Predict the 3D structure of the following.
Amino acid sequence: MTNAYIILLGGALGLYTLGMVTGFFYLFRPMPQKTLWCKRFIQTGSLVHLLAFLSRCIQVQTLAVTNLHESLSFFALLLALAFLLIGRKTSLPTLGTFISPLLIIFTMWALIIPHAITPQPPILRSFWLPLHVLLSFAGNAFLVLGCIVSVMYLLQEHLIKRKKIKGIFRKLPALQKLDELSYLCLRCGFPLLTLGIISGSVWASFAWGSHWSWDPKETWSLITWLLFAALLHGRMNSGWRGRKASFLTIIGFAAIMFTFLGVNLMLSGLHSYAH
Amino acid sequence: MHIVILGLNHQTAPVATRERLAFTAEELPKVLNRLKKEAGLDEVMILSTCNRVELYGICSDLDECRNRLIKFLAEYHRIEADSFADNLYFHTDSEAIRHGFRVASSLDSMVVGEPQILGQLKEAFAIAADESGTGLILNRFLHRAFFIAKEVRTRTKIASCAVSVSFAAVELAKKIFGDLNNMKVMLIGAGEMCELAARHFINQGVEQVLVTNRTLIRAQQLAEEFSGIALPFDMFHNHLDQVDIILSSTGAPDYLIHPQDLIRALKKRRNRPMFLIDIAVPRDINPKINELDNIYLFDVDDLQDVVTENIDQRHQEAKRAEELVTREVEKFEQWLASLAVTPTIKKLREQTLEISHQELKKTLAGFSDLSDKEKHRLEAMVNAIANKFLHHPINYLKSHTDDAAARPATMIREIFKLDKSDNP
């Protein structure tokens, strides 16, 4: 069972890698391409990844996010799904190219570190765990996707301002479309993140008797939340867009990464993964 | 059987010559019928555009065909053949095939990659086909040419980027805004290039055009033409925040638009991006504004650079297209050669079997006491000899279809006297 799981995960990694290779090939190749293999590979990869994840869920009999390995893998899966969901609405041929390196990093990281099943402390056995993690992770996945779009925006904006009207300029989407997409990711991700934090707090009041205990993860997720709240407010009310919004999104990305991984790897607290 | 193309184009002939030899679409059916008869062509098609006049034909004698075609052009248009003979090219066989494919793929066009020629060729073919001008070879030739043109278009970037300043502006706008449907455009001044660009923008579906000019009448005329709104020249600054695209080409000696104007406009429009195109020399827009966030300014040199870049790219892509055409020319030649081989094989087999059966009949007539079974066995033997005898020559023909002008087929025809009906 474990072997099959690892093979599936490896298969997903392979497909993501193929997606990245075809994606960058398309980006730098001088000719147009009819079919977008990059997106297809990521699509197939995420399907295989989903199978791996479900098999793991059956094995651990809950949402498989009980240790760092499972969390990394689950986050990569959600990121791929968020990309496919957004990709359905807008056809941005190069988005897959830019998202694929992240998918590869997270999946590979998950594969490298120990992936034994960790026995769960009884206190975490609650239906709140899957709910809390699913909401927070999905929120973060959309926000990270928005960050990738912002990177593309900054790249394209740089090319237009410097009048470098050749090469990948032609392959990258229009500025306005990128800005709109980044905003869309924010509007999807922020409510999910908010619900994730609220559900965590409700759960905490059941489990530990207190809504908020200033655990490092809680503190950092509050910082992340405030950052994105400020960005959302700026976009809605003060006409923040373009470069400014893109830079803030990227800072928000750094905050997410620190909340998600940095806190667990560097600080200790209630949210640490059992090693 | 040869494919020939006789004609002239923008490279070989001045417009004065081209226009005298051109045909209108209305007269084409009549001309095609006459040409087919008078020039003794098996198949015929005429392509007549503002850049080229070309006669496509299938004939058996090249020199005679050439002379007859020239004579036809001279007689039909009632001009001296000498006055245009030097402007003509006469392509035959593989050169004609290549030429036809290049024309269809827009590699022979004045602006390489321009899309109209394919439509014109299709129309010329449709007229010729309606008049039964074309047959087996030209039909296949043109369908192949259309297919190659499509391949060139999709597999290379030959037609993917703008080669005029005004269209380059539209392409840039698309890279900034995505689609231009709800955009508003302001024209400052009424230069020719500005007008042209405005027309391109309207074709792309912009919502509204505002026009301003030092002479209000001129602005009103233009505004009417574009179903837009005219603004007095001293008022246009108040409307900057309402427009997304600004095209400027006045004769003003100093800058008309300064960073402060746009900072104010941006504030009002909540930083929605603006694209400014300054085609004026001296410039109308202070270049410093390109440093503002969400403002993109291109002057005439920037646009010219884009165009130069694009033309370079088209020529690069044209090279790749030529390779594609070369491969296709070879394939088509093979098909033509096989066309010559197939009837040869058939004829060879018929003739051999005919001789065998004649001899068999003679022999059988001399026997009276043979049973049916024995007769059948003799017949089978004769057939087997004929087939075994033919096996190698036919294989040879089939495997040598790619030889130029199908020489083996011609040789076999001569050796076995296949073209004479009075065989012994």
